[in-house]
Design goal:
Elements lengths: L2 H8 L3 H14 L9 E5 L3 E6 L14 H19 L5 E12 L7 E6 L2 H14 L2 E12 L4 E13 L9
Antiparallel strand pairs: 1-2, 2-4, 3-6, 4-5, 5-6
Helix pairs in contact: 1-2
Length: 169
Protein backbone atom coordinates (compact mmCIF):
# COMPACT_ATOMS: atom_id res chain seq x y z
CA UNK A 1 0.00 0.00 0.00
CA UNK A 2 1.48 3.35 -1.02
CA UNK A 3 0.38 5.42 1.97
CA UNK A 4 1.90 8.62 0.58
CA UNK A 5 -0.41 8.61 -2.44
CA UNK A 6 -3.42 7.54 -0.39
CA UNK A 7 -2.81 10.29 2.19
CA UNK A 8 -2.64 12.87 -0.60
CA UNK A 9 -5.92 11.67 -2.08
CA UNK A 10 -7.56 11.32 1.37
CA UNK A 11 -7.19 15.08 1.84
CA UNK A 12 -10.02 15.64 -0.64
CA UNK A 13 -11.78 12.29 -1.09
CA UNK A 14 -14.03 10.51 1.41
CA UNK A 15 -13.37 7.22 -0.40
CA UNK A 16 -9.60 7.57 -0.01
CA UNK A 17 -10.04 8.64 3.61
CA UNK A 18 -11.99 5.41 4.16
CA UNK A 19 -9.26 3.49 2.30
CA UNK A 20 -6.57 5.15 4.44
CA UNK A 21 -8.35 4.12 7.64
CA UNK A 22 -8.83 0.55 6.38
CA UNK A 23 -5.14 0.36 5.47
CA UNK A 24 -4.04 1.76 8.83
CA UNK A 25 -6.09 -0.90 10.63
CA UNK A 26 -4.15 -3.57 8.71
CA UNK A 27 -0.75 -1.89 9.08
CA UNK A 28 -1.15 -1.13 12.80
CA UNK A 29 -3.18 -4.05 14.17
CA UNK A 30 -2.61 -2.94 17.78
CA UNK A 31 -4.85 0.11 17.16
CA UNK A 32 -7.64 -1.74 15.33
CA UNK A 33 -9.68 -2.73 18.42
CA UNK A 34 -9.80 0.93 19.50
CA UNK A 35 -11.51 1.92 16.25
CA UNK A 36 -9.38 5.01 15.69
CA UNK A 37 -10.33 6.94 12.60
CA UNK A 38 -8.55 9.70 10.74
CA UNK A 39 -11.45 12.13 10.35
CA UNK A 40 -9.52 14.79 8.46
CA UNK A 41 -5.99 15.18 7.16
CA UNK A 42 -4.38 18.14 5.40
CA UNK A 43 -0.79 19.13 4.72
CA UNK A 44 -0.57 20.65 8.22
CA UNK A 45 -3.32 19.09 10.36
CA UNK A 46 -4.72 15.77 11.44
CA UNK A 47 -7.98 15.19 13.29
CA UNK A 48 -8.56 11.72 14.68
CA UNK A 49 -11.46 10.08 16.48
CA UNK A 50 -11.53 7.76 19.48
CA UNK A 51 -15.03 6.28 19.54
CA UNK A 52 -16.97 6.03 22.76
CA UNK A 53 -17.50 2.27 22.77
CA UNK A 54 -17.17 -0.58 25.24
CA UNK A 55 -13.66 -1.60 24.16
CA UNK A 56 -12.37 1.90 25.02
CA UNK A 57 -14.05 2.16 28.45
CA UNK A 58 -12.40 2.27 31.84
CA UNK A 59 -14.08 0.83 34.95
CA UNK A 60 -16.55 3.75 35.20
CA UNK A 61 -17.54 3.73 31.51
CA UNK A 62 -15.38 6.70 30.58
CA UNK A 63 -12.77 6.76 27.83
CA UNK A 64 -9.76 4.81 29.12
CA UNK A 65 -6.62 6.82 29.88
CA UNK A 66 -4.45 4.47 27.81
CA UNK A 67 -6.75 4.71 24.77
CA UNK A 68 -6.51 8.50 24.96
CA UNK A 69 -2.72 8.29 25.26
CA UNK A 70 -2.50 5.90 22.32
CA UNK A 71 -4.62 8.24 20.19
CA UNK A 72 -2.17 11.03 21.05
CA UNK A 73 0.80 8.91 20.00
CA UNK A 74 -0.87 7.72 16.80
CA UNK A 75 -2.08 11.16 15.69
CA UNK A 76 1.20 13.00 16.20
CA UNK A 77 3.33 10.22 14.78
CA UNK A 78 1.17 9.71 11.72
CA UNK A 79 1.11 13.39 10.78
CA UNK A 80 4.87 13.68 11.28
CA UNK A 81 5.68 10.61 9.20
CA UNK A 82 3.27 11.76 6.49
CA UNK A 83 5.25 15.02 6.28
CA UNK A 84 8.71 13.45 6.56
CA UNK A 85 10.08 10.99 4.04
CA UNK A 86 9.89 7.62 5.87
CA UNK A 87 12.73 6.37 3.67
CA UNK A 88 15.00 9.14 4.99
CA UNK A 89 13.85 9.59 8.61
CA UNK A 90 13.12 7.23 11.48
CA UNK A 91 10.90 8.34 14.35
CA UNK A 92 10.73 6.56 17.69
CA UNK A 93 8.59 7.38 20.70
CA UNK A 94 10.85 8.61 23.50
CA UNK A 95 8.46 9.93 26.16
CA UNK A 96 4.72 10.28 26.51
CA UNK A 97 3.25 12.76 28.98
CA UNK A 98 -0.49 12.97 29.51
CA UNK A 99 -2.55 15.42 31.50
CA UNK A 100 -6.17 14.43 32.03
CA UNK A 101 -8.69 17.22 32.47
CA UNK A 102 -12.19 15.79 32.05
CA UNK A 103 -13.78 12.32 31.98
CA UNK A 104 -14.66 11.32 28.42
CA UNK A 105 -18.26 10.12 28.17
CA UNK A 106 -18.61 10.47 24.38
CA UNK A 107 -16.38 10.29 21.28
CA UNK A 108 -13.00 11.99 21.65
CA UNK A 109 -11.25 13.94 18.88
CA UNK A 110 -7.53 14.67 18.79
CA UNK A 111 -6.19 17.52 16.71
CA UNK A 112 -2.53 18.08 15.94
CA UNK A 113 -0.92 20.62 13.63
CA UNK A 114 2.55 21.20 12.20
CA UNK A 115 3.75 23.39 9.36
CA UNK A 116 6.85 23.84 7.19
CA UNK A 117 8.40 26.36 9.60
CA UNK A 118 7.94 23.93 12.53
CA UNK A 119 9.59 21.13 10.54
CA UNK A 120 12.48 23.41 9.58
CA UNK A 121 13.07 24.70 13.14
CA UNK A 122 12.44 21.47 15.06
CA UNK A 123 13.75 18.78 12.72
CA UNK A 124 15.68 19.80 9.61
CA UNK A 125 17.90 22.49 11.16
CA UNK A 126 18.82 20.49 14.33
CA UNK A 127 19.67 17.43 12.20
CA UNK A 128 22.25 19.45 10.26
CA UNK A 129 24.48 19.47 13.37
CA UNK A 130 23.20 16.52 15.41
CA UNK A 131 22.67 12.80 14.86
CA UNK A 132 19.15 13.03 16.22
CA UNK A 133 16.65 15.48 17.64
CA UNK A 134 13.70 15.17 19.98
CA UNK A 135 10.53 17.04 19.13
CA UNK A 136 7.67 17.56 21.56
CA UNK A 137 4.29 17.34 19.87
CA UNK A 138 1.44 18.77 21.91
CA UNK A 139 -1.99 17.40 21.11
CA UNK A 140 -5.33 18.19 22.72
CA UNK A 141 -8.27 15.83 22.77
CA UNK A 142 -11.81 17.19 23.12
CA UNK A 143 -15.14 15.39 23.21
CA UNK A 144 -18.08 15.94 20.87
CA UNK A 145 -19.34 18.80 23.04
CA UNK A 146 -15.95 20.52 23.16
CA UNK A 147 -14.92 19.49 26.68
CA UNK A 148 -11.12 19.38 26.95
CA UNK A 149 -10.33 15.77 27.88
CA UNK A 150 -6.53 15.64 27.67
CA UNK A 151 -3.34 17.39 26.71
CA UNK A 152 -0.65 15.07 25.50
CA UNK A 153 3.01 15.87 25.03
CA UNK A 154 4.49 13.22 22.79
CA UNK A 155 8.29 13.29 22.55
CA UNK A 156 9.53 11.81 19.28
CA UNK A 157 13.18 11.13 18.50
CA UNK A 158 13.85 11.85 14.82
CA UNK A 159 16.97 10.52 13.16
CA UNK A 160 18.20 10.12 9.61
CA UNK A 161 18.28 6.44 8.64
CA UNK A 162 21.95 6.76 7.70
CA UNK A 163 22.72 7.61 11.36
CA UNK A 164 20.88 4.56 12.78
CA UNK A 165 23.36 2.09 14.26
CA UNK A 166 21.05 -0.91 14.71
CA UNK A 167 20.21 -2.97 11.66
CA UNK A 168 16.77 -4.19 10.63
CA UNK A 169 16.43 -7.93 10.11
Amino acid sequence: MDTTKIVQKAKSSSFYLWLLNAGLNRMIPFNKPHGFKVVEITDTTIKTKLPYKRGNFNHIKGLHACALATLSEFSTGFLMISRLDPKKFRIILKTLEMEYHYQGKMDGFGTFEINDQWLEEKIYNPLKDNESTVVICEIKIHDTEGNHLTTGKVHWQVKSWDKVKTKLN
